[in-house]
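Ticket #4471: structure export looks truncated?
Reporter: QA, pipeline team
Priority: medium

Steps to reproduce: submit the single chain below to the structure queue and open the exported record.
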Amino acid sequence: MTVTERGGEPAAGGVPHRGHPTGANRPSATASEAVERRRYLSVRGGEWAFAVVGLPFALLGGVYALAVLYAGALLSLTVVGLPFVVAALLGARRLGALHRWLAGRLLGEYVEAPAGLRRPVGVFARGRVVLSDPVAWRTLLYLVLRLPLGVLGFAAAVVLPLGCGWLVGFPLWVRVGDGARPAGPLDAVSVVLGLVVLSAVPGAVRALSGVNRRLARLLLGPGRAQRRVRELETARTTLLADNTDRLRRLERDLHDGTQARLVALAITLSLAEDALTPPAGPDLGRLRTLVDRARGQTDDTITELRRLTRGIHPVALDGGLGEALPSLAATAPVPVALRLDLGERPHPVVERVVYFCAAELLTNIAKHSGARSAELTVRTTDDRVRLSVRDDGRGGAAVGVGTGLTGLAERLAAVDGAIRVDSPPGGPTVVVAELPTRLP
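Actual output as written to the record:
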Protein backbone atom coordinates (compact mmCIF):
# COMPACT_ATOMS: atom_id res chain seq x y z
CA MET A 1 0.00 0.00 0.00
CA THR A 2 1.19 3.50 -0.73
CA VAL A 3 0.02 6.73 0.81
CA THR A 4 0.72 9.96 -1.01
CA GLU A 5 -0.50 13.52 -0.90
CA ARG A 6 -0.61 16.12 -3.59
CA GLY A 7 2.72 17.79 -3.79
CA GLY A 8 4.44 15.17 -1.62
CA GLU A 9 6.43 11.99 -2.03
CA PRO A 10 4.98 8.54 -1.33
CA ALA A 11 5.13 7.60 2.31
CA ALA A 12 6.39 4.04 2.55
CA GLY A 13 4.49 1.58 4.64
CA GLY A 14 1.56 3.90 5.14
CA VAL A 15 3.57 6.34 7.31
CA PRO A 16 1.90 9.76 7.45
CA HIS A 17 3.34 12.35 5.09
CA ARG A 18 6.01 14.69 6.47
CA GLY A 19 4.45 17.75 8.05
CA HIS A 20 1.30 15.80 8.96
CA PRO A 21 1.98 14.09 12.28
CA THR A 22 -0.33 11.46 13.60
CA GLY A 23 -1.80 13.84 16.13
CA ALA A 24 -3.02 16.04 13.30
CA ASN A 25 -5.73 13.52 12.58
CA ARG A 26 -7.47 14.20 15.89
CA PRO A 27 -9.28 17.40 14.79
CA SER A 28 -10.65 15.64 11.72
CA ALA A 29 -11.74 12.69 13.86
CA THR A 30 -13.47 15.10 16.27
CA ALA A 31 -15.14 16.80 13.33
CA SER A 32 -16.31 13.45 12.01
CA GLU A 33 -17.76 12.58 15.41
CA ALA A 34 -19.57 15.92 15.48
CA VAL A 35 -20.98 15.25 12.03
CA GLU A 36 -22.18 11.82 13.13
CA ARG A 37 -23.88 13.38 16.16
CA ARG A 38 -25.60 15.93 13.91
CA ARG A 39 -26.73 13.13 11.58
CA TYR A 40 -28.15 11.20 14.54
CA LEU A 41 -30.08 14.17 15.90
CA SER A 42 -31.24 15.57 12.55
CA VAL A 43 -34.36 13.94 11.17
CA ARG A 44 -35.88 15.26 7.98
CA GLY A 45 -39.46 16.44 8.04
CA GLY A 46 -40.33 13.85 5.42
CA GLU A 47 -39.23 11.07 7.74
CA TRP A 48 -41.51 12.34 10.51
CA ALA A 49 -44.35 12.75 8.01
CA PHE A 50 -43.82 9.24 6.66
CA ALA A 51 -43.97 7.82 10.17
CA VAL A 52 -47.24 9.64 10.89
CA VAL A 53 -49.02 9.70 7.51
CA GLY A 54 -47.72 6.27 6.56
CA LEU A 55 -49.65 4.49 9.33
CA PRO A 56 -53.05 4.55 7.55
CA PHE A 57 -51.41 3.38 4.33
CA ALA A 58 -49.57 0.64 6.21
CA LEU A 59 -52.79 -0.49 7.88
CA LEU A 60 -54.67 -0.45 4.57
CA GLY A 61 -51.97 -2.36 2.73
CA GLY A 62 -51.33 -4.85 5.52
CA VAL A 63 -55.01 -5.68 5.99
CA TYR A 64 -55.41 -5.99 2.21
CA ALA A 65 -52.44 -8.36 1.88
CA LEU A 66 -53.48 -10.53 4.83
CA ALA A 67 -57.07 -10.67 3.59
CA VAL A 68 -55.89 -11.63 0.10
CA LEU A 69 -53.66 -14.39 1.41
CA TYR A 70 -56.33 -15.73 3.77
CA ALA A 71 -59.21 -15.56 1.30
CA GLY A 72 -57.04 -16.85 -1.54
CA ALA A 73 -56.12 -19.90 0.53
CA LEU A 74 -59.78 -20.58 1.39
CA LEU A 75 -61.04 -20.07 -2.16
CA SER A 76 -58.18 -21.83 -3.91
CA LEU A 77 -60.24 -25.02 -4.35
CA THR A 78 -63.34 -23.25 -5.68
CA VAL A 79 -64.23 -21.87 -9.09
CA VAL A 80 -63.80 -18.23 -7.99
CA GLY A 81 -60.45 -18.85 -6.31
CA LEU A 82 -58.10 -18.16 -9.22
CA PRO A 83 -60.03 -15.13 -10.57
CA PHE A 84 -60.04 -13.68 -7.06
CA VAL A 85 -56.27 -14.11 -6.71
CA VAL A 86 -55.69 -12.58 -10.16
CA ALA A 87 -57.75 -9.52 -9.27
CA ALA A 88 -56.04 -9.27 -5.88
CA LEU A 89 -52.57 -9.37 -7.44
CA LEU A 90 -53.52 -6.59 -9.87
CA GLY A 91 -54.73 -4.56 -6.90
CA ALA A 92 -51.45 -5.25 -5.08
CA ARG A 93 -49.56 -3.77 -8.03
CA ARG A 94 -51.61 -0.57 -7.73
CA LEU A 95 -51.00 -0.40 -3.98
CA GLY A 96 -47.30 -0.89 -4.67
CA ALA A 97 -47.35 2.16 -6.98
CA LEU A 98 -48.99 4.17 -4.16
CA HIS A 99 -46.31 3.13 -1.67
CA ARG A 100 -43.54 3.90 -4.18
CA TRP A 101 -44.96 7.39 -4.56
CA LEU A 102 -45.15 7.82 -0.77
CA ALA A 103 -41.55 6.66 -0.27
CA GLY A 104 -40.34 8.97 -3.02
CA ARG A 105 -42.22 12.05 -1.79
CA LEU A 106 -41.50 11.72 1.93
CA LEU A 107 -38.38 9.57 2.26
CA GLY A 108 -36.63 10.69 -0.92
CA GLU A 109 -36.28 7.04 -1.99
CA TYR A 110 -37.30 7.14 -5.63
CA VAL A 111 -37.87 3.50 -6.53
CA GLU A 112 -37.95 2.69 -10.21
CA ALA A 113 -41.31 1.36 -11.37
CA PRO A 114 -41.19 -2.27 -12.52
CA ALA A 115 -42.03 -3.22 -16.08
CA GLY A 116 -45.68 -3.58 -17.00
CA LEU A 117 -47.34 -6.93 -17.43
CA ARG A 118 -47.37 -8.65 -20.78
CA ARG A 119 -50.78 -8.81 -22.42
CA PRO A 120 -51.00 -12.07 -24.32
CA VAL A 121 -54.10 -13.03 -26.27
CA GLY A 122 -56.73 -14.87 -24.27
CA VAL A 123 -58.18 -14.60 -20.77
CA PHE A 124 -56.45 -17.69 -19.44
CA ALA A 125 -53.06 -16.61 -20.81
CA ARG A 126 -53.42 -13.20 -19.15
CA GLY A 127 -54.44 -14.80 -15.87
CA ARG A 128 -51.41 -17.08 -16.04
CA VAL A 129 -49.16 -14.04 -16.55
CA VAL A 130 -50.63 -12.31 -13.50
CA LEU A 131 -50.36 -15.39 -11.30
CA SER A 132 -46.68 -15.82 -12.20
CA ASP A 133 -45.88 -12.11 -11.78
CA PRO A 134 -43.04 -11.81 -9.21
CA VAL A 135 -43.63 -8.06 -8.82
CA ALA A 136 -47.17 -8.55 -7.47
CA TRP A 137 -46.10 -11.28 -5.04
CA ARG A 138 -43.17 -9.18 -3.80
CA THR A 139 -45.58 -6.27 -3.33
CA LEU A 140 -47.83 -8.45 -1.19
CA LEU A 141 -44.83 -9.35 0.93
CA TYR A 142 -43.97 -5.65 1.24
CA LEU A 143 -47.50 -4.82 2.39
CA VAL A 144 -47.35 -7.53 5.07
CA LEU A 145 -43.96 -6.34 6.37
CA ARG A 146 -44.96 -2.69 6.13
CA LEU A 147 -47.76 -3.20 8.66
CA PRO A 148 -45.57 -3.72 11.77
CA LEU A 149 -43.07 -1.15 10.50
CA GLY A 150 -45.85 1.41 10.13
CA VAL A 151 -47.03 0.78 13.68
CA LEU A 152 -43.48 1.03 15.03
CA GLY A 153 -42.84 4.22 13.06
CA PHE A 154 -46.00 5.88 14.41
CA ALA A 155 -45.10 4.78 17.92
CA ALA A 156 -41.57 6.19 17.58
CA ALA A 157 -42.69 9.50 16.06
CA VAL A 158 -45.86 10.19 18.06
CA VAL A 159 -46.49 7.82 20.97
CA LEU A 160 -42.94 7.81 22.29
CA PRO A 161 -42.56 11.63 22.41
CA LEU A 162 -45.96 11.94 24.11
CA GLY A 163 -44.93 9.34 26.67
CA CYS A 164 -41.66 11.19 27.27
CA GLY A 165 -43.61 14.41 27.77
CA TRP A 166 -45.77 12.68 30.35
CA LEU A 167 -42.69 11.33 32.17
CA VAL A 168 -40.94 14.72 32.16
CA GLY A 169 -44.11 16.40 33.45
CA PHE A 170 -44.87 13.64 35.96
CA PRO A 171 -44.01 15.79 39.01
CA LEU A 172 -46.53 18.35 37.78
CA TRP A 173 -49.29 15.90 36.86
CA VAL A 174 -49.29 14.21 40.29
CA ARG A 175 -49.57 17.57 42.02
CA VAL A 176 -52.53 18.74 39.97
CA GLY A 177 -54.85 16.65 42.12
CA ASP A 178 -52.70 16.57 45.25
CA GLY A 179 -50.75 19.80 45.62
CA ALA A 180 -49.44 18.85 49.06
CA ARG A 181 -47.55 15.81 47.79
CA PRO A 182 -43.84 16.18 48.70
CA ALA A 183 -41.14 15.76 46.09
CA GLY A 184 -39.48 12.36 46.06
CA PRO A 185 -36.89 10.35 44.13
CA LEU A 186 -39.60 9.10 41.76
CA ASP A 187 -39.98 12.63 40.40
CA ALA A 188 -36.30 12.90 39.50
CA VAL A 189 -36.25 9.39 38.02
CA SER A 190 -39.27 10.11 35.79
CA VAL A 191 -37.72 13.35 34.47
CA VAL A 192 -34.36 11.72 33.75
CA LEU A 193 -36.00 8.67 32.17
CA GLY A 194 -38.19 10.88 29.99
CA LEU A 195 -35.23 12.91 28.72
CA VAL A 196 -33.16 9.77 28.05
CA VAL A 197 -35.94 8.12 26.09
CA LEU A 198 -36.66 11.38 24.26
CA SER A 199 -33.04 11.55 23.11
CA ALA A 200 -33.48 8.15 21.46
CA VAL A 201 -36.49 9.26 19.41
CA PRO A 202 -34.54 10.79 16.46
CA GLY A 203 -32.34 7.72 16.17
CA ALA A 204 -35.38 5.43 16.22
CA VAL A 205 -37.16 7.45 13.53
CA ARG A 206 -34.02 7.52 11.37
CA ALA A 207 -33.44 3.78 11.80
CA LEU A 208 -37.02 2.91 10.88
CA SER A 209 -36.85 5.27 7.88
CA GLY A 210 -33.72 3.48 6.71
CA VAL A 211 -35.46 0.10 7.03
CA ASN A 212 -38.44 1.40 5.05
CA ARG A 213 -36.14 2.73 2.33
CA ARG A 214 -34.34 -0.58 1.98
CA LEU A 215 -37.60 -2.51 2.03
CA ALA A 216 -39.13 -0.34 -0.69
CA ARG A 217 -35.99 -0.56 -2.78
CA LEU A 218 -35.87 -4.34 -2.40
CA LEU A 219 -39.54 -5.29 -2.89
CA LEU A 220 -41.25 -2.48 -4.81
CA GLY A 221 -38.79 -2.04 -7.64
CA PRO A 222 -38.12 -4.25 -10.64
CA GLY A 223 -36.59 -7.67 -10.11
CA ARG A 224 -32.88 -8.23 -10.35
CA ALA A 225 -33.10 -9.63 -13.87
CA GLN A 226 -35.31 -6.77 -15.07
CA ARG A 227 -33.08 -4.21 -13.39
CA ARG A 228 -29.98 -5.73 -14.95
CA VAL A 229 -31.56 -5.72 -18.42
CA ARG A 230 -32.55 -2.08 -18.03
CA GLU A 231 -29.10 -1.11 -16.80
CA LEU A 232 -27.44 -2.85 -19.73
CA GLU A 233 -29.84 -1.26 -22.22
CA THR A 234 -29.28 2.19 -20.73
CA ALA A 235 -25.51 1.68 -20.60
CA ARG A 236 -25.44 0.45 -24.19
CA THR A 237 -27.45 3.45 -25.39
CA THR A 238 -25.26 5.85 -23.42
CA LEU A 239 -22.02 4.32 -24.66
CA LEU A 240 -23.22 4.32 -28.26
CA ALA A 241 -24.20 7.98 -28.01
CA ASP A 242 -20.94 8.83 -26.22
CA ASN A 243 -18.83 7.01 -28.80
CA THR A 244 -20.74 8.67 -31.65
CA ASP A 245 -20.18 12.12 -30.17
CA ARG A 246 -16.52 11.32 -29.55
CA LEU A 247 -16.01 10.14 -33.14
CA ARG A 248 -17.71 13.28 -34.45
CA ARG A 249 -15.50 15.50 -32.31
CA LEU A 250 -12.44 13.57 -33.43
CA GLU A 251 -13.47 13.90 -37.07
CA ARG A 252 -14.08 17.63 -36.65
CA ASP A 253 -10.75 18.16 -34.89
CA LEU A 254 -8.90 16.19 -37.56
CA HIS A 255 -10.63 18.11 -40.33
CA ASP A 256 -10.37 21.59 -38.85
CA GLY A 257 -7.06 21.24 -37.04
CA THR A 258 -4.71 18.49 -38.12
CA GLN A 259 -5.73 18.49 -41.78
CA ALA A 260 -5.29 22.27 -41.99
CA ARG A 261 -1.81 21.97 -40.46
CA LEU A 262 -0.84 19.25 -42.95
CA VAL A 263 -2.10 21.37 -45.86
CA ALA A 264 -0.02 24.29 -44.62
CA LEU A 265 2.99 21.98 -44.32
CA ALA A 266 2.46 20.76 -47.89
CA ILE A 267 2.31 24.37 -49.14
CA THR A 268 5.51 25.21 -47.26
CA LEU A 269 7.30 22.21 -48.80
CA SER A 270 6.08 23.27 -52.25
CA LEU A 271 7.50 26.75 -51.70
CA ALA A 272 10.77 25.17 -50.55
CA GLU A 273 10.88 23.11 -53.76
CA ASP A 274 10.37 26.29 -55.79
CA ALA A 275 13.21 27.97 -53.88
CA LEU A 276 15.56 25.14 -54.90
CA THR A 277 15.16 25.63 -58.68
CA PRO A 278 14.89 29.35 -59.53
CA PRO A 279 16.48 30.62 -62.80
CA ALA A 280 19.21 32.43 -60.85
CA GLY A 281 20.05 29.41 -58.65
CA PRO A 282 18.86 28.22 -55.21
CA ASP A 283 17.79 30.95 -52.76
CA LEU A 284 19.46 29.54 -49.64
CA GLY A 285 18.17 32.20 -47.26
CA ARG A 286 14.55 31.74 -48.32
CA LEU A 287 15.03 27.98 -48.36
CA ARG A 288 16.32 27.99 -44.79
CA THR A 289 13.35 30.07 -43.68
CA LEU A 290 10.90 27.68 -45.33
CA VAL A 291 12.59 24.60 -43.84
CA ASP A 292 12.41 26.15 -40.35
CA ARG A 293 8.76 26.91 -40.92
CA ALA A 294 8.12 23.33 -42.06
CA ARG A 295 9.86 21.97 -38.99
CA GLY A 296 7.68 24.12 -36.73
CA GLN A 297 4.52 23.06 -38.56
CA THR A 298 5.56 19.40 -38.19
CA ASP A 299 6.07 19.82 -34.45
CA ASP A 300 2.67 21.51 -34.12
CA THR A 301 1.00 18.71 -36.06
CA ILE A 302 2.61 16.03 -33.87
CA THR A 303 1.48 17.89 -30.75
CA GLU A 304 -2.05 18.13 -32.13
CA LEU A 305 -2.13 14.40 -32.90
CA ARG A 306 -0.89 13.55 -29.41
CA ARG A 307 -3.63 15.70 -27.91
CA LEU A 308 -6.28 13.93 -29.96
CA THR A 309 -5.04 10.43 -29.17
CA ARG A 310 -4.76 11.24 -25.46
CA GLY A 311 -8.56 11.51 -25.27
CA ILE A 312 -8.93 8.03 -26.75
CA HIS A 313 -6.57 6.30 -24.35
CA PRO A 314 -4.77 8.14 -21.53
CA VAL A 315 -1.02 7.76 -21.95
CA ALA A 316 -0.67 7.57 -18.16
CA LEU A 317 -2.49 4.20 -18.18
CA ASP A 318 0.29 2.56 -20.17
CA GLY A 319 1.98 1.83 -16.84
CA GLY A 320 -1.25 0.80 -15.10
CA LEU A 321 -3.25 2.42 -12.30
CA GLY A 322 -0.19 2.45 -10.03
CA GLU A 323 1.40 5.09 -12.28
CA ALA A 324 -1.70 6.86 -13.57
CA LEU A 325 -3.53 7.61 -10.30
CA PRO A 326 -0.61 9.35 -8.51
CA SER A 327 -0.28 11.72 -11.49
CA LEU A 328 -4.02 12.33 -11.42
CA ALA A 329 -4.02 13.04 -7.68
CA ALA A 330 -1.00 15.34 -7.99
CA THR A 331 -2.81 17.57 -10.50
CA ALA A 332 -6.10 17.73 -8.57
CA PRO A 333 -7.20 21.23 -7.46
CA VAL A 334 -7.57 20.05 -3.83
CA PRO A 335 -5.03 18.10 -1.73
CA VAL A 336 -5.62 14.40 -2.26
CA ALA A 337 -4.38 11.58 -0.03
CA LEU A 338 -3.87 8.52 -2.21
CA ARG A 339 -4.00 4.94 -0.94
CA LEU A 340 -3.35 2.12 -3.37
CA ASP A 341 -3.48 -1.61 -2.72
CA LEU A 342 -3.04 -3.06 -6.18
CA GLY A 343 -2.43 -6.68 -7.02
CA GLU A 344 -2.74 -8.11 -10.49
CA ARG A 345 -3.58 -5.57 -13.20
CA PRO A 346 -7.28 -5.52 -14.12
CA HIS A 347 -8.60 -5.71 -17.65
CA PRO A 348 -7.57 -2.63 -19.72
CA VAL A 349 -11.21 -1.58 -20.12
CA VAL A 350 -11.70 -1.82 -16.34
CA GLU A 351 -8.54 0.23 -15.76
CA ARG A 352 -9.82 2.91 -18.09
CA VAL A 353 -13.20 3.04 -16.32
CA VAL A 354 -11.53 3.31 -12.90
CA TYR A 355 -9.24 6.08 -14.15
CA PHE A 356 -12.06 8.12 -15.69
CA CYS A 357 -14.26 7.60 -12.61
CA ALA A 358 -11.47 8.85 -10.33
CA ALA A 359 -10.88 11.86 -12.60
CA GLU A 360 -14.60 12.71 -12.70
CA LEU A 361 -15.03 12.39 -8.92
CA LEU A 362 -12.00 14.59 -8.19
CA THR A 363 -13.32 17.16 -10.67
CA ASN A 364 -16.73 17.12 -8.97
CA ILE A 365 -15.06 17.68 -5.60
CA ALA A 366 -13.25 20.75 -6.91
CA LYS A 367 -16.31 22.18 -8.67
CA HIS A 368 -19.21 21.47 -6.32
CA SER A 369 -18.22 20.27 -2.83
CA GLY A 370 -16.21 23.16 -1.38
CA ALA A 371 -13.92 20.55 0.19
CA ARG A 372 -10.48 21.35 1.58
CA SER A 373 -9.10 17.84 1.22
CA ALA A 374 -9.97 14.50 -0.31
CA GLU A 375 -8.94 10.88 -0.06
CA LEU A 376 -8.71 8.46 -2.99
CA THR A 377 -8.45 4.73 -2.27
CA VAL A 378 -8.21 1.91 -4.79
CA ARG A 379 -7.99 -1.75 -3.80
CA THR A 380 -7.98 -4.81 -6.02
CA THR A 381 -8.71 -8.39 -5.05
CA ASP A 382 -8.87 -11.54 -7.12
CA ASP A 383 -12.16 -10.59 -8.75
CA ARG A 384 -13.13 -7.03 -7.73
CA VAL A 385 -11.79 -3.48 -7.93
CA ARG A 386 -12.99 -1.03 -5.28
CA LEU A 387 -12.60 2.72 -5.80
CA SER A 388 -13.45 4.99 -2.88
CA VAL A 389 -13.32 8.80 -2.89
CA ARG A 390 -13.99 10.74 0.30
CA ASP A 391 -14.07 14.52 0.82
CA ASP A 392 -14.87 16.89 3.69
CA GLY A 393 -17.16 19.14 1.63
CA ARG A 394 -20.72 20.28 2.13
CA GLY A 395 -22.36 17.01 1.05
CA GLY A 396 -25.70 16.62 -0.65
CA ALA A 397 -24.44 14.60 -3.64
CA ALA A 398 -26.69 11.91 -5.10
CA VAL A 399 -27.00 9.84 -8.23
CA GLY A 400 -29.61 11.41 -10.47
CA VAL A 401 -29.23 14.95 -9.10
CA GLY A 402 -26.66 15.96 -11.74
CA THR A 403 -25.16 14.50 -14.87
CA GLY A 404 -21.74 13.64 -13.39
CA LEU A 405 -22.67 10.81 -11.01
CA THR A 406 -25.40 9.60 -13.37
CA GLY A 407 -22.87 9.28 -16.16
CA LEU A 408 -20.52 7.38 -13.85
CA ALA A 409 -23.31 4.98 -12.87
CA GLU A 410 -24.05 4.31 -16.53
CA ARG A 411 -20.38 3.84 -17.38
CA LEU A 412 -19.97 1.39 -14.48
CA ALA A 413 -23.13 -0.51 -15.39
CA ALA A 414 -21.64 -1.17 -18.83
CA VAL A 415 -18.87 -3.25 -17.19
CA ASP A 416 -21.12 -4.85 -14.54
CA GLY A 417 -20.09 -2.34 -11.88
CA ALA A 418 -22.08 -0.29 -9.37
CA ILE A 419 -21.75 2.99 -7.50
CA ARG A 420 -22.81 3.89 -3.95
CA VAL A 421 -23.03 7.45 -2.63
CA ASP A 422 -23.20 8.46 1.04
CA SER A 423 -23.43 12.24 1.19
CA PRO A 424 -25.54 13.67 4.04
CA PRO A 425 -26.01 17.46 4.24
CA GLY A 426 -22.92 18.91 5.85
CA GLY A 427 -20.75 16.04 4.67
CA PRO A 428 -18.58 14.12 4.55
CA THR A 429 -19.21 12.60 1.12
CA VAL A 430 -18.08 9.06 0.35
CA VAL A 431 -18.49 7.63 -3.16
CA VAL A 432 -17.68 3.95 -3.64
CA ALA A 433 -17.49 2.25 -7.04
CA GLU A 434 -17.04 -1.50 -7.39
CA LEU A 435 -16.48 -3.41 -10.61
CA PRO A 436 -14.99 -6.75 -11.67
CA THR A 437 -11.31 -7.04 -12.52
CA ARG A 438 -12.03 -9.25 -15.51
CA LEU A 439 -14.66 -9.01 -18.23
CA PRO A 440 -16.39 -12.08 -19.65
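Status: closed, not a bug. The export was complete when the record was re-opened. Leaving a note from the reviewer for reference: The chain has 13 helices and six strands.
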